[in-house]
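Researcher: Batch entry, complex prediction.
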Amino acid sequence: MNPFYRLGSWIVDRYAGLRERISPGWLEKNRSKLVETKLSLYVFTSSLIGLTGLVLVLVTLFLALFGPLIAWEPYDVYPILQRPELAGKLPHPPCYGSCGGLPAFGTDHYGRDVLSLVTRGFRISLVMSLIIVLTSSVIGILIGLISGYFGGVVDEVLMRFTDMMLAFPGLVLAIAFSLTLRLSLRDYLMANPAATGVVASLFALNPKDAPNLANLLSVFLALILVWWPPYARVVRGSVLSAKEQGFVEAAKALGLSSWKILLRHILPNILSPLLVMVTFDFATATLSSAALSFLGLGPQPPVPDLGLIISQAGQFFPERSWWIVVEAGTALLLISLGWNLVGDALRDVFDPRTRRSIELRAKIEVRK
Amino acid sequence: MSDSMPGNQVLAVRDLTVRFYTYAGVVHAVSEAYLDVFEGESIALVGETGCGKTVFTKAITGLIDPPGRIESGRVLFRRRSGAVVDLIRLPPEEIREIRGNEISYIFQDPSSALDPLYTAGDHIVETITEHRAVSSRDASAEALQLLRDVLIPNPEVRIKNYPHELSGGMRQRVVIATAIANKPRLLIADEPTTNLDVTVQAQILDLLRELKEKYRMSLLLITHNLGVVAETAERVYVMYGGRIAETADIYTIFESPMHPYTQLLLRAVPNPLKRIEKLESIPGTVPNLIDMKPGCPFAPRCPLVRDICRSQNPPRVDLGNNHLVHCWLLVKG
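Model: Structure tokens for the complex:
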């Protein structure tokens, strides 16, 4: 047994012990559930890919949460304005010992420490991808459930609309949306300081930077708008097969309401492919939002967005800016690699065939 | 018929017609079917696979999904309160209150009738709390009692088991417990023993009979197994090609069947006491119900067919004592 499984199993046992102490009999009642949870843990932790991905994801999540606190330099102060003698030396490459007061991992063309910027950049990337994927998957799931379950005219209307959205290339549509949304979002944020404050704290940016926040938000909304159609499609397909199952018919015959059938019986049964899809999409969404910023549609300087940092290095590439691209690019790589590996491992966990073959090897027990 | 029924009648179905509008054509799944169920009675609905038994019973509580449509007919049902309602004209919300509460179903396949993600107890509790204002604690206590009633060994443990941890017979017992959770007035069992092995079949049938007495339900049993019919039912409806072919009490059906189809069906039952060379069967196949023309559906297979059988629907002939036969052979003259 590997140490990760033992750790996870210990946590599960502790949790079970706690619940058992609060309400005696809980353990006996939920034994099957606990064994399944432990089996999932075992399958996940016995794959090296999954563990690597998990570590990467945890690291990036940690940086996303605490990066803005760790970052040792403010992002919106340009050293070049305070030290005019730097002109002509920037961007400054990484240096060892002979830095002349400049950061060791190189600067961008404003003289800011690239590593500090990248540390802040995790927050923006992660928040972007999480909210884009979660919001659009909720929209997609709702549309897919309704369309697949009720069928008929409802299905026809919703799916033709989804087809319409799918027919456009996603990124191009997102560009169009972000350009049109930007102005009204800016006006809205200018008029509502409270909303601006919320958005700013979400991205760990300065609330005074309202125009840039509007740009970030526009990328964000634009991606949500183009992100849900595949979810609606996948969910509808799964619902179509799930609703033919006996227990759905039985639930109907027992007089359960359509919403209860959908949320209690159909959705949980189609959740595992969705979960895998969501995990992979975190990576894709990170890359897409970085791509939009790279194209200049996202925030403008001084926002420490990874795509923007890379795009600004472009004018000096490669001799005078390779370190910027490497540092920001590595950050993006870590994020997307982590989610991809986790998604891969989750697919194994949810695939009954691989799962059962591993189950035969494992002896799962729930201790009292 | 008016909207009134004798006081001890639970269900009266009249002229129920269900059609499916598919790309291949209109499927006449059920045509002018009728059914009477009295309080505390066991009724059997017999017929070959594909003769419309299941569709007929599903249509009673409107469980027909598009492209199927209930074309006409009336389903009068006496509720617990004593009020008589026409289930076909009831708004969906009200009919939902009746399903699982006053009319319950047990479906054929116990392995798929339970959601793999919920325990046996969850299924029962869900049904109880859907129809009655009961706390989930009380509902679990009731669920335990129900599992005891359906004779599941060690119910305290089984209530927390997931479907994959239960055997086929045990699953069917859980399904039955779920169906009777709200003490329905009418229990419709759609081939409840088809997927179970023979010894378990007998147990389940005994159980259904006992529960019927205990909860004072009426039982509508759908089956193609005449042994089950003889074992359980008091009255029998024989269905063929979406139509009722013959109905009578159990003794009349077995002693003096009048419809040629019923006669052939009974002859096809192997008798374990007789050494037989070859199992009897009815020549021909079940009719294709797509775009049916008027005429007796059994005419192509009937050994006694006449010309009129092929062109006109057979009339209903009343032989007295509730023995109704739909056949031209019994029309005098």
